[in-house]
Design a protein that fits this description.
Helix content is 39%, strand content 18%. The chain contains 15 helices and 24 strands. The chain is α+β, with helices and mostly antiparallel strands. The protein has helices spanning 52-55, 67-73, 101-104, 128-140, 159-162, 172-216, 221-225, 254-257, 302-305, 355-365, 368-377, 388-393, 401-444, 450-455, 466-491, and strands spanning 11-14, 19-24, 38-44, 61-66, 80-83, 85-86, 96-98, 111-113, 117-122, 148-150, 155-157, 166-169, 250-253, 259-262, 277-280, 297-298, 310-311, 316-319, 324-325, 328-329, 331-333, 341-343, 347-351, 395-398. The longest helix is centred in the middle third of the chain and has 45 residues, at 172-216. Strand 10 (148-150) and strand 11 (155-157) form a beta hairpin. Helix 6 (172-216) packs antiparallel against helix 13 (401-444) and helix 10 (355-365) crosses helix 13.
């Protein structure tokens, strides 16, 4: 049964009947295997499929296989490799790649597929690019999951059933036209997708630039020039270690700027899975978000006993174990919808004079200037830790309350603009991802070449028709069948 409604001039045929040669791969032996009759090969694995558009299989591994194995398994231009084992819950088996001469030219040895792949060699009368594109379409449609079995961690393709899938067959000339059109259109789609995928990284750099400008005073340089500026009256001298901030700003330790409280080491037998007083652990503090997964609790009576460690809705928190990953600091607000909790060890909270100062420090903590201090003081262990003592000594440079408010306002405005762009990019990426499948569907419904068929009736009829093509393939297969039967009889 075909996935698509195809034009009247087309035919449908089982995949099995379009293939001249099918054989499993070979994993062979390690490269230093010394037994005679073995030869070095480049072995393509399923892991090469992921970056095929970029690498064309150049990361294939060197193996040694029996020389007589190469007679049937050496890849030729136009061969299709089909993944028959591997995959997982989010990646079904059934992916394919097309082998062309440039793939083979990368290696000084024969090239084969591993035993997790199957070599499909299309009939000489079938356009290999066309057939591979259809198999890509079939895979992306999700229909392939009906032909796989196995466990969650290792899926297997039921090849005997898969080989019966129906392939739409236009005339030979139209196959080439479709393959050419798809190569052009899908290359444009991939280029568009690649450009869109670069934008989030650009926005990340933009946000970091905004933060750098914010905490260095560059973002509000003009603002200071047009306002009656009042310095922070803290009686502290500017540190020589921080020289990039305006002279009006005050540089001090974090402990002098706010109250830094590190958590208490509660006993393990005090934690429960239910309760009314949440224990604030490092697992709760994520990148900009408080995570309640596997939330544990402490006795409510501890709120009176350990008043110092009380965490209130809206408090700013920081993880001190593995505090930074991918250049992002684990800092978040305790949700305003949550009841008062208690701060566990390896988490710090920060108490400020007012909400505006808290918002400014949220920005400052994500600046490169602050994160460099974190990196510099992390313990060199399997679980990098940030000492509360070191944290309190970190240097911060602060503007007046008025300028802090203006900085937060401007950063919020710029970040909102960046977030809007990012959402537009994500929407565009979703449309582009759908576009690939839409183009493939149009191609295999005959819509991309409808005008071409009208303009070239002589290339779709008579000896050039799809029906005549299938008859030729049938004849070719009939000629090779006795030879295969003789080989099976000899082996028996």
């Amino acid at each position: 049964m075909s996935l698509l409604q195809i034009p009247e001039l087309w035919q449908s045929e089982a995949l099995e009947n379009l293939l001249a040669h099918v054989i499993g791969g070979d994993w062979g032996k390690v490269p230093d295997h010394q037994e005679e009759g073995y030869q070095c090969v480049a072995c393509i694995r399923g892991s090469e499929f992921r970056n095929w558009a970029r690498d064309s299989g150049r990361t294939a591994v060197v193996r040694k296989v029996k020389e007589n194995s190469l007679e049937k398994r050496s890849l030729l231009p136009g061969d299709i490799l089909l993944e028959i084992s591997g995959g997982g819950p989010d990646q079904p088996v059934g992916r394919t790649v097309l082998i062309n001469q440039s793939v083979l030219d990368q290696f000084d040895t024969p090239v084969i597929g591993t035993n997790f792949l199957r070599l499909l060699r299309p009939s000489a009368s079938i356009n290999q690019r066309y057939l591979n594109r259809y198999l890509e379409f079939f895979y992306s449609s999700g229909e392939v999951v009906r032909y796989q079995g196995g466990s969650n961690n290792l899926r297997n393709l039921k090849f005997k059933e898969y080989s019966q899938i129906s392939v739409p067959i236009p005339s030979p000339a139209e196959q080439k036209v479709i393959a050419d059109k798809l190569d052009t259109l899908l290359a444009q789609v991939e280029n568009t997708k690649a450009r869109l995928e670069r934008i989030p990284q650009i926005l990340k750099h933009f946000r970091q630039s905004v933060l750098a400008a914010a905490v260095s005073g560059r973002l509000t340089e003009e603002w200071r020039g047009s306002h009656d500026y009042r310095c922070l009256a803290l009686g502290l001298e500017k540190s020589d270690e921080v020289t990039s901030c305006p002279r009006e700003w005050q540089t001090m330790t974090l402990a002098d700027a706010c109250n830094v409280v590190s958590g208490n080491a509660f006993k393990s037998n005090e934690f429960t899975d239910t309760g009314t007083t949440p224990a604030i652990k490092i697992s709760n503090v994520q990148y900009g978000a408080f995570e309640k997964k596997n939330q544990q609790y402490l006795p409510g009576s501890h709120l009176q006993t350990y008043r110092k460690f009380e965490v209130l809705p809206g408090d700013l928190l920081m993880a001190l174990t593995r505090p930074i990953t991918n250049d992002t600091l684990k800092v978040c607000r305790y949700p305003i919808t949550e009841p008062a909790g208690l701060l566990n060890q390896r988490v710090a909270k920060f108490l400020f004079n007012n909400e505006q100062q808290k918002e400014f420090f949220e920005l400052l903590f994500q600046s490169n200037y602050f994160k460099l201090q974190v990196y510099d003081k992390l313990s060199e262990t399997l679980q990098p830790n940030l000492s509360p003592v070191d944290l309190k000594k970190f240097l911060v440079s602060l503007p007046s309350s008025e300028e802090q408010t203006e900085i937060v306002r401007r950063v919020d405005q710029l970040f909102a603009h960046a977030n809007h762009i990012e959402q537009q990019v994500n929407n565009a990426l979703a449309r582009v991802n759908n576009l690939t499948q839409s183009i493939l569907a149009k191609a295999f419904r005959g819509e991309l070449t409808e005008q071409w068929r009208n303009d070239n009736p002589e290339l779709t009829s008579g000896e050039n028709s799809a029906g005549a093509l299938l008859e030729r393939i049938k004849t070719e297969r009939a000629k090779t069948k006795p030879e295969k039967q003789r080989r099976r009889t000899t082996r028996a």
